[in-house]
Every structure is written in structure tokens, then in C-alpha cells.
Specification:
Elements (H helix, E strand, L loop, with lengths): L8 H6 L7 H14 L4 E7 L4 E6 L6 H8 L42 E7 L6 E7 L17 E4 L7 H17 L6 H13 L4 H8 L10 E6 L5 H7 L9 H6 L15 E7 L5 E3 L9 H6 L2 E7 L5 E7 L2 E2 L4 E3 L14 E7 L11 H14 L1 E6 L2 E2 L13 H7 L1 H4 L6 E7 L20 H21 L9 H41 L2 H21 L4 H25 L11 H40 L5 H61 L8 H34 L9 H59 L1 H23 L12 E4 H18 L3 E4 L1 H5 E5 L1 H19 L9 E7 L2 E6 L27 H11 L3 E5 L5 E6 L4 E2 L3
Helix pairs in contact: 14-17, 15-16, 15-17, 16-17, 16-18, 18-19, 20-21, 21-24, 22-24, 24-25
């Protein structure tokens, strides 16, 4: 009797050709790991040699399992209650995701040849098999013509590279036997691929580690080489046309990590190794939506659809629960159970513009970017994602189509929402996935499912997000947020001008002080007084001379107050950033110094000159008369200033009063006008012949119009009243003071958040650099140790060794600065001698110092100093100090001397220069992260240097000096070994 025969090409068509793409294939293999009760399934992809390893820690397979299940296409074991696949005894039963028994063939999409290793949890022998998928595409070959090399190994033992090579040889022999049925080109291509499979499972296990098959651990590993060249394209994507790569779009959220009440059944990872050491985990949990992002979103909707398609759930608009249990009916059930069954929904949405959102600006930007890439409604069956639902380019619920017809009417958008639908294998079994995993089959159950959800989103928008919505809250909150945004914007503009003037005043003060203008003006005032006193001596009439002296004393005291007022700055009651606060503190210190050293001595000297002149001229002018005259002059000045300020206050008060009256009057007019229009319409209506329903509706509309205008104008007047009541008429803390304090705290918190963000990014970057260079560092250290052995017996090599060692410690030190919790291999404290340190500095900067004509001087005390510590902790600090000194000294006029000096005084190592020095207001700021006056400077060196030294019980300080800048490195164990 004739029977069907199966060509080998059937496997190629069922596997590689049926799967939609690489990402879908990986998703299928992840599902198989889930069905094998794995806790972890991980992929490691090495670009350099095209190696891809997929591993899970599931139940694994015995030799019998492999032959009867994995090598059997269309196996029914997942659905036959008498032949269920094995599972860990203590684990909860998982619903099986595989349906066709062909999902394992997806592995063919990842690369042409495969080594399978599997260890059963019952500790039977480890199974290893090899195959090249290319042979299954050969025409004219039946499945029974192909034999799969299969070997077993003792539990916990991996095959060696030689044993894998022997298995490849067996497959080569099989291919050779049937090669007469294919072209030479196809045969040679397969032979070349077999030659490339130089795999050592023992070596791979040593650097990948867990999940492993050694030490009696179970699971299944796929080793593929070479991986398909399309994998790189799938990972990298086209950043010009795609916001997120295809692989991420498909594999992120494989398990439902959005749901805080549900723990992921299986952890997934995909490590893409750009180099042997450096990798990206493409599908880490942080890349996908998190439960916290649900909490932070503007709106959240969660609930259940019953078997009739009727929704009951909770609706949160701007975080406020709207009703106890909101109901959205669906008219399609007609009293019968739906085929699709009941299911649950939980999703979040946020506003399209930041000004209408309650999410902080920085978080809004981050969430908006993520949602642009990954936003949408995902479907999970028992916690595992079903493709392609959730992808923004698969608009299966016509959300974007409706939105294009009316943004305000339909509201929802994939780009501004994220969440999930949860279905169950038993409850929703009529929702059947297509064979190629490109969505559900378009059966009655799916059509009902889609209809229920489309109705749900349309009605949800109608209930809560339209202007005419029945449920109160959304539009009112939007208006409130809009008002707040407008108020913030107005305040920001006002503050901007005040801050600009304040900065201008501070800068003027510092420039004047740097040019010694206050002292010059004080000297000029004294000189003018002396000259005018000389003129008084020419007056022969005693009474006229006395009067002139009194007037002169009043004038000069007034000029002193004016001079003092010229440099006196009041801090505005607004929030200030760190830099301005730093300048303000420096100003207060400098102004106090001016009072002490310029203005107060000036007052004293003026009094002395006046007194001396009175004595010299023998004028009878007692202190009481002089004091009364001085106070009278001061009173006139104060009266004048107070009157001017009082006039300004009165003017503003009149303006406010006028505007307040105008607003109040206008509000009354608005209410009265609306009332009259209502009454006019009312008088034109024939109420006697009007049906009851129409009468009630008309009356309701009239009342609503009056209430609406009353509420609007009432809110405006209440706001105005509250603002007027907030005015303080004493010197206590006013509303402006309170606002300024809040603003100040907000600015400082924002700045700190920015610094924290930069540090986090910097830390990640340094961690990558450290990871990438760790192997190189170990190699260089090993070679340096070998070179030292030669340097110890060869004097010519000693200096070369020292310079190389110091240069390497310098480089290594910069890495260790950012990894204080780590210790490099082979590090130990050594004696650091001053003469070697200065020699290293001299050699390092020799060319730059020669170019800028800078002289580096090292004192005998520095040369003889010695520190015990890590070179990598000290060398970078000295390098940074000298590097900075070179820059600032080089700014001097070339005709002037340019000097840098290394010295040691009182057990303090000093680095000084004769450059422009450091401004008074910058003395503490220079050690802050990010502060720099150097053009293009990053403001990191001094901060990192000080922190590094403090970790080894040293410190870096700015030392007072006559000129230039002097930095000191100090600790008690600096030992002077010289005389």
C-alpha cells in the first residue's frame, strides 16, 4: 500500500521558513524553556567569532527524551494527560505554551549548525547531539536518510573539543553519503561550515558559568556557530527609521514585569558582546515598563471583563479614584457567554503635553521616550507575552486610526499608554495563536475579544476624557494644571529679570573690588576733604568757617554712605542656584572686609581730619552741635528715601486697588449679563404648551448656565481675595518670602538631581571602561613584573622600568579613582620619593613647559620628602595640579616670568605657581564637582583628587600665599629624610 513519504525539506519549511523572524524564533525558544520549568533562559552572542549560546536551567532531557520528543516533529506530549512532559517535583504546574510540537525548529533561524547539550534533572547521562540545518534544505533527500550524531556522557561531564570534532565528522560522513543528490556548490558550502565548528564546550562553560550543566545541574544548551549574519541587523536596527531595534521590540517584556502582583516565572537575558569583555544586556527589566511607572502615570485603569464581555473596574484620573466600581457594558453578548471568555486589563496613560501632566518634567521626558519606543497594550497568557501585541506598528484595536480622526474625542494613543491584557490557557483557550506566531487566528472568539476592547476604549474616552464627559475631574484638573503652568511661567519670567540684575550687581561688585576701586574712591574722598579743609582756613570769619566745616562734615558723611550704598547689595527674595549662592556668600565676606578695611576707617579718618581742623583753627564747635548737624543731615536723607519708597508703595497699592475693583465690577457685569440673556430667552419661550420633558430640560439648561458663570467668576474673585489677604503689613515672613524659600529648595534639589544623574552616567561609563581594560591591566602588570626582574640586574633598564611603571600607575590610578570599592591586582603600598615624583612630572610635561617657557623648580625639601602609599593615589593628583598650573601660568604676559614650584614645608607637600591666582569667591568652589573657570574644563580633577586623598587619610587644600595659587597635600606621615 502506498504511504506518505517525508522529505527532509519539510523540517526546513516547518522551522526556518515558517518563523516570522529571528526575534520570533528566540521568543519561541524562550517559551520552550518556560515549558521546561526553567527559572532562567539566557543568550550570549559574541560578535567577534559569530558564536551564540542559548542556555536554560530547566528539567533537561535524557537520551530517551531527546529521541522521542525533541527529534519527533509534532509531538503531542504537552497535551496528552498520560504523557505530560517532566517537571521539577516541587514546582507549581505551568500551562504549556507550545502547541504544535515544532517550536524547537525555530533554532534553525539563528544559525546553520548546532550543538545541543542537555542534562536531565534526574541525573541521567548528559546528551550531546550535532546537526547542520543546511542538509534539510537539500532536495530529494528523505528524513530517514539523515542520521543525527548523538552521544552521552557521565552526569556533570561536558564533551571535549575533540569529542565534538568527532561528532562533526560523523555528520560529515552522513552528508557525503547523500551528496550525489545535490549540487557541488551546496555540498562544498556545507563542508566549509562544518570546518568552522571548532567548539570547546568545557572552555565555553568556564567563562559563561551559570546556568551550567556541570556539578549535576540540569537544563538544555544550544551552541550555534556561525550565528546568522542577520542577527547583527536585528540587534542594531536602523536608528534613522526605527526608534527601537526589532529584537528589543519583540523580546522586551517577554514576562509580565509590569504587574507588581505577579512574579515573573522565568528570567530572560540577551548579552550582546561587542568585545570579549564588553557587553550590553539588551532585554534587562529596567529597559521595559516597571510597576513604579504605573504608579507615576497620570491615569490608570484596571479591572476585569466577565464571560459576557461586561467590564467592571477602577478608574484613576490624575491619581484620584473616580467611582467605586465603574461599569462599561458591551452589547454584543445578547445574554450568552462569549467564546473568548473573561480576562483582565491593567494599563496606564499620561498626557501628551508636560504642562497637563502631574509627572515631574525629567521623569515625563524619560517615560515619553520609552513609550514612544515601546508603548501599547500587551497581551500575556499566564504571564508570558503573545506576539505581536504591544508593538506600536500593529494597531489591532484601531486606537491610532481613531485618534487620527479626533485626538480630543478618542483620547488614547499607543505612544501615551502602556499596560497589559491578561488571559489564561484554560479560560481563554478559544483564542488560538497562528502557527507562525503572528497573532491570534481570526476566529469568532478573537473577533469578540477585539470588539469588546474597541467598545471599552471608545466608551472610556467618552466617560472621562471629553469636555462633555459625565464624570467630573479630567477637564477641571487640566485647567488647574494649565493655570499652575501659566503661573510658573509668569513667575519664571519675573524671577529671570530679578536674577539677571542681581548677577549683574554681583559681577560689578567683584570687578570693582578686583580693580581696587572702593579704596581708590575712599582715597579720593579723603583727598577732596583735605583740599576743602585747606580752603576753609582761608575764611577769616570764625562763624562762617564753623558753618562751612559743619556742612563739609555732613557732606562727606553723606558721600561715605553713598559710597557704601554703591557696593551694598540686597539679596532678592527668589530661589538661587549654587553658583549664585556661592557668589552671594563670597560677596558678604568681601563686603564685610570692605566695611572693616575701607569704609569704617574712612569714617574714622574723616572725623579725625575734621577734629584736627577745628583744633587747629581754634573754632569753638562742640560735639553736640556737630552730632546734631550730622543727625539732621542723615534724617533728611532717610526722609527723602523713605518718602520715595512710600510713594512707590502707594502708587502700586492704588494700581492694585484699581485693578481689583475693575475685576470685581467686571465679574458682576458678567453674571448680570448672563442672567439677563437667560431671562430674555426664557421670556420668548411658550412654557404652557411645552411637554414636561422639554420644560425640565430647558429649565435645567438655564440654571446650569447661571451656575457656570457664577462658579467661574466666583473662583476668580476668591483667588483675588486670597492674594490680597496674603499681603503682610509687618516685617514678618511674607508670602514672597515663603515662595522664595520653596523656590530656593526646589532649585537646589534640581541641581542635586542633575549632579546625581551625571554621576550615575559617569559611574556606568567608568564601570564599562574598567571592565574593558581589566584584562589589559592584568597583562601589563604581569609584563612589568617580568621587566623588573631584568631591571634589577641591568642598570640601563632601571630608569626605563621606573618611568614605565610610574606612567602605568598614573593611568591605572585614573581608573581606580572611580572604583573605590575595587582593588587592582598586585597593588601594595610603597615608598614614594619626592625626587622620583618630580622627575616623573618633569618628564611628563617637559614639552609643554618648554613651549610655554615655564620653569619647574623642585626644592631640596621636596626631593627629600617621602610618602608611604599607593602611587595611583598620589601621582594623578600631582599631575592634575601641575597640568592646571601650566594652563593658568601660560596666560601671563610672555615677558613676565612663569614659574611652578614643588616644595615641602611643615610636612606639607606644596605645588605653587605665580599665575593669576584664585578669586576669593572661588576658593571653596574649585573643589566642587563640575566647577571650572578653565575654558572647556569639566571641573573634575580637584574634586576627584581631594576625594581620593581623603580615602587614604590625606587631604588636598588651597594654601594662602602672596601671589598665584598654592595647593598643599598633607598628612603626618610625610617623612623628611634630608638634612
Amino acid at each position: 500500500m502506498p504511504t506518505f513519504r517525508t522529505r527532509a525539506r519539510t523540517l526546513d519549511m516547518l522551522g526556518r521558513q515558517q518563523i516570522a523572524g529571528i526575534s520570533t524564533a528566540i521568543s519561541e525558544l524562550f517559551k520552550n524553556a518556560h515549558d521546561a520549568y526553567a527559572d532562567h533562559v539566557e543568550i550570549d552572542y559574541y560578535r567577534s567569532d559569530g558564536l551564540l549560546v542559548l542556555r536554560d536551567d530547566g528539567v533537561g532531557m535524557s537520551k530517551e527524551d531527546f529521541e522521542n520528543r525533541w527529534l519527533t516533529v509534532g509531538t503531542e506530549s504537552k497535551f496528552d494527560p498520560d504523557r505530560l512532559p517532566p517537571r521539577f517535583p516541587k514546582k507549581k504546574i505551568r500551562p504549556m505554551l507550545g502547541e504544535k510540537g515544532i517550536g524547537r525548529l525555530a533554532v534553525a533561524t539563528l544559525g546553520p549548525q548546532l550543538l545541543i547539550l542537555s542534562q536531565n534533572f534526574e541525573r541521567s547521562d548528559l546528551v550531546a547531539a550535532f546537526l547542520n540545518w543546511g542538509i534539510f534544505a537539500w532536495p530529494g533527500i528523505d528524513l530517514e536518510d539523515i542520521t543525527i550524531p548523538l552521544r552521552t556522557f557521565p552526569t556533570g561531564t561536558l564533551p571535549t573539543m575533540l569529542e565534538v570534532s568527532e561528532m562533526v565528522g560523523e555528520f560529515r560522513n552522513c552528508a557525503t553519503r547523500v551528496s550525489d543528490k545535490v549540487s557541488c556548490e551546496s555540498f562544498h558550502k556545507l563542508m566549509e561550515e562544518l570546518d568552522q565548528f571548532n567548539i570547546d564546550p568545557v572552555d565555553i562553560d568556564s567563562y559563561l558559568q551559570k546556568p551550567s550543566l556541570k556539578n549535576y545541574q540540569s537544563g538544555t544548551h544550544f551552541i550555534i556557530k556561525p550565528a546568522t549574519s542577520l542577527l547583527k541587523e536585528e540587534i542594531d536596527g536602523n536608528l534613522i527609521t526605527e526608534k527601537v531595534t526589532p529584537l528589543k521590540k519583540t523580546l522586551l517584556g517577554f514576562c509580565n514585569t509590569m504587574n507588581p502582583d505577579q512574579k515573573a516565572l522565568i528570567k530572560t537575558a540577551f548579552r550582546d558582546y561587542k568585545t570579549e569583555e564588553l557587553f550590553d544586556d539588551l532585554i534587562s527589566d529596567e529597559e521595559f515598563f516597571t510597576p513604579k511607572e504605573f504608579e507615576d502615570a497620570d491615569h490608570r485603569i484596571l479591572g476585569k471583563f466577565d464571560k459576557f464581555g461586561q467590564f467592571q473596574g477602577e478608574i484613576y484620573i490624575y491619581g484620584k479614584k473616580q467611582t467605586n466600581r465603574h461599569v462599561i457594558p458591551w452589547s454584543g453578548s445578547k445574554g450568552t457567554h462569549t467564546d473568548c471568555g473573561g480576562f483582565s486589563v491593567d494599563f496606564a496613560a499620561f498626557e501628551g503635553e508636560p504642562k497637563y501632566s502631574t509627572i515631574p518634567d525629567e521623569e515625563y521626558s524619560r517615560l515619553s521616550r520609552k513609550s514612544d519606543w515601546l508603548g501599547g497594550l500587551y497581551i500575556y497568557r499566564n504571564g508570558i507575552r503573545i506576539l505581536p501585541y504591544g508593538s506600536s506598528n500593529f494597531d489591532w484595536l484601531n486606537i491610532e486610526l481613531r485618534r487620527s480622526k479626533g485626538t480630543g474625542y478618542y483620547y488614547f494613543s499607543h505612544r501615551k499608554m502602556f499596560g497589559f491584557l491578561e488571559i489564561d490557557s484554560s479560560e481563554n483557550k478559544a483564542l488560538i495563536e497562528k502557527a507562525g506566531r503572528e497573532g491570534f487566528q481570526e476566529n469568532k472568539a478573537f473577533r469578540q475579544y477585539r470588539s469588546i476592547l474597541e467598545n471599552f476604549f471608545i466608551q472610556l474616552a467618552a466617560d472621562f476624557f471629553r469636555k462633555e464627559s459625565v464624570y467630573y475631574g479630567y477637564e477641571e484638573k487640566k485647567k488647574e494644571l494649565s493655570r499652575e503652568e501659566a503661573a510658573r511661567k509668569k513667575r519664571k519670567e519675573k524671577v529671570k529679570e530679578v536674577k539677571k540684575q542681581f548677577i549683574k550687581d554681583l559681577n560689578f561688585f567683584f570687578v570693582q573690588c578686583d580693580d581696587d576701586k572702593p579704596q581708590e574712591e575712599a582715597n579720593a574722598l579723603k583727598m577732596d576733604l583735605k583740599n576743602k579743609l585747606l580752603a576753609v582756613r582761608e575764611i577769616s570769619e570764625i562763624q562762617s568757617a564753623a558753618s562751612k566745616i559743619i556742612m563739609l562734615e555732613q557732606t562727606k558723611h553723606s558721600e561715605i554712605r553713598e559710597l557704601e550704598g554703591k557696593y551694598k547689595i540686597s539679596r532678592p527674595r527668589i530661589g538661587l542656584n549654587k553658583e549664585i549662592l556661592r557668589d552671594w556668600e563670597a560677596y558678604k565676606s568681601s563686603f564685610s572686609s570692605l566695611l572693616e578695611n575701607v569704609f569704617n576707617p574712612l569714617k574714622k579718618r574723616v572725623d579725625e581730619l575734621i577734629s584736627d581742623e577745628i583744633k587747629m583753627a581754634s573754632i569753638a564747635l562742640n560735639r553736640q552741635v556737630r552730632t546734631e548737624a550730622a543727625l539732621d543731615g542723615l534724617n533728611k536723607e532717610v526722609q527723602k528715601k523713605t518718602k520715595e519708597t512710600g510713594s512707590e508703595v502707594q502708587k502700586e497699592a492704588n494700581k492694585v486697588a484699581s485693578k481689583a475693583k475693575m475685576v470685581a465690577t467686571q465679574s458682576l457685569i458678567e453674571v448680570e449679563s448672563e442672567f439677563r440673556e437667560v431671562m430674555s430667552e426664557f421670556q420668548r419661550m411658550d412654557l404652557a404648551s411645552m411637554p414636561d420633558e422639554s420644560f425640565k430640560e430647558s429649565r435645567s439648561k438655564f440654571e446650569e448656565r447661571i451656575q457656570k458663570v457664577t462658579e467661574k467668576q466666583g473662583a476668580l474673585l476668591r483667588s483675588l481675595k486670597e492674594q490680597l489677604e496674603a499681603i503682610e503689613f509687618s516685617d514678618t515672613i511674607s508670602t514672597v518670602d515663603q515662595l522664595g524659600a520653596i523656590e530656593q529648595r526646589n532649585i537646589l534639589l534640581e541641581e542635586q538631581a542633575e549632579v546625581d544623574s551625571q554621576l550615575a552616567q559617569l559611574g556606568m561609563a567608568i564601570e564599562i571602561i574598567d571592565h574593558e581594560f581589566s584584562g589589559t591591566v592584568r597583562s601589563i602588570r604581569t609584563n612589568l613584573r617580568q621587566l623588573k626582574a631584568w631591571a634589577d640586574i641591568n642598570q640601563d633598564l632601571e630608569k626605563l622600568y621606573e618611568n614605565m611603571r610610574n606612567s602605568f600607575d598614573h593611568l591605572d590610578g585614573y581608573l581606580t579613582l572611580f572604583t573605590p570599592l575595587q582593588r587592582r591586582l598586585y597593588r601594595k603600598e610603597v615608598e614614594i620619593h619626592g625626587h622620583r615624583l618630580s622627575g616623573f612630572i618633569q618628564e611628563l610635561f617637559k614639552a609643554r613647559m618648554a613651549r610655554h617657557e615655564i620653569t619647574l623648580t623642585t626644592t631640596k625639601a621636596f626631593s627629600n620628602a617621602m610618602i608611604i602609599g599607593f602611587p595611583s593615589s598620589f601621582y594623578p593628583v600631582f599631575v592634575n595640579l601641575v597640568d592646571n598650573a601650566i594652563f593658568w601660568v601660560s596666560q601671563k604676559n610672555p615677558s613676565e616670568s612663569r614659574e611652578i614650584k614643588l616644595d615641602c614645608q611643615n610636612d606639607i607637600l606644596l605645588v605653587s605657581d605665580n599665575g593669576p591666582g584664585i578669586d576669593l569667591r572661588d576658593r571653596e568652589a574649585i573643589f566642587e564637582l563640575g566647577f571650572s573657570r578653565k575654558p572647556g574644563g569639566r571641573g573634575m580633577g580637584l574634586h576627584i583628587g581631594r576625594e581620593t586623598l581623603r580615602r587614604v587619610d590625606f587631604d588636598l587644600q588651597l594654601i594662602d600665599g602672596d601671589s598665584g595659587a598654592t595647593f598643599g597635600i598633607l598628612k603626618n606621615n610625610i617623612i623628611n629624610t634630608g638634612n
